[in-house]
Write a structure and sequence with these properties.
By secondary structure, this protein is an all-alpha fold. It has one domain. Helix content is 77%, strand content 0%. It is built from twelve helices and no strands. The longest helix has 33 residues.
Length: 287
């Protein structure tokens, strides 16, 4: 008669994933609930699209009232679409570890054998589906409602700029996740504080070149600043004349920001994990 092996024997036989395999398994596992969750609350889709369109329309009507160049209407539509990615970074990634601490899940993440970077990347990719859909709907509706005309100069550069902007932006989100966690309850206030000023200094609704040179240079630390500026230069006929820097230079800076933010995120997440193991208090509300 065949008998079932003891539990410890089965445990020894079970393959243990590690390295890149465990990393990408964690990414997929963490992305799955966010993708499914977006389908359960379809009312969120309505508010995520309608409210930003109202904000975009307000800027469009102001520009048309003051008889600004028609390209500014396109700048507003593209900027309004990109706000979806900034909000996703600010609320669904940077503040995520703080919310996980408040709900009691952070301790499980830290003692798990997988990487915190993989967990955050999975959250980001899961939320990216709904974020991209929201951005596309805003772009399509805004272009249709306000008759925006596009003239793509170099499609390959446009794709590269968008991809590098997203990598650098999500790298910054991972870095902020550890900083917000270390700041504890101040994370909520910082998230609220950072939302609207970034719209201004990053030129979401106007060319960042309109700002003082040094203000625009400081704002370039936020990847969306250079990403938006380069994309506008590539999709509007007079975009190059309103650009802050050349597209090639902005492309190079974005590559540098990708490297800096990803390395900084890895260092800070490892530091936070070591701090939690050493002190055993990071997952408590008193820190």
């Amino acid at each position: 008669m065949k008998t079932t092996p003891p539990y410890d024997v089965l445990a020894r036989r079970a393959p243990k994933n590690s390295g890149a395999h465990l990393f990408w398994q964690t990414v997929l596992a963490r992305a799955y609930p966010r993708v499914i969750g977006q389908q359960r609350e379809k009312s969120w889709m309505f508010f995520d699209v309608v409210l930003p369109i109202i904000g975009v329309a307000a800027y469009v009507f102001v520009y048309r009232a003051i008889q600004a160049p028609e390209e500014y209407v396109g700048f507003v539509v593209v900027g309004g679409a990109m706000t979806a990615f900034w909000l996703n970074i600010l609320w669904s990634m940077s503040s995520q570890l703080y919310w996980e601490k408040e709900t009691g899940n952070l301790a499980l993440y830290i003692i798990a054998p997988n990487s915190l970077m993989a967990i955050l990347l999975g959250m980001a990719l899961g939320g990216l589906l709904a974020t991209t859909l929201r951005a596309v709907v805003i772009l399509v509706l805004g272009s249709w409602l306000f008759h925006v005309q596009y003239a793509v100069v170099h499609f390959g550069q446009l794709v590269a700029i968008f991809f590098l902007s997203m990598v650098a932006l999500y790298g910054m989100g991972m870095m902020f996740a550890s900083l917000f966690l270390l700041l504890s309850r101040e994370a909520w206030h910082i998230s609220n504080l950072a939302q609207e000023p970034v719209y201004l200094i990053s030129g979401f609704y106007f060319p960042v070149k309109s700002l003082n040179f040094w203000v625009a240079t400081a704002a370039s630390l936020i990847p969306l600043t250079l990403g938006l500026d380069a994309m506008r230069q590539l999709v509007f006929p007079s975009g190059a004349t309103l650009g802050f820097l050349s597209v090639r230079l902005e492309l190079g800076i974005l590559i540098g920001l990708c490297v800096i933010f990803l390395l900084a995120a890895r260092f800070l997440l490892n530091y936070m994990e070591r701090l939690a193991i050493r002190e055993g208090r990071l997952t408590e509300n008193r820190r």
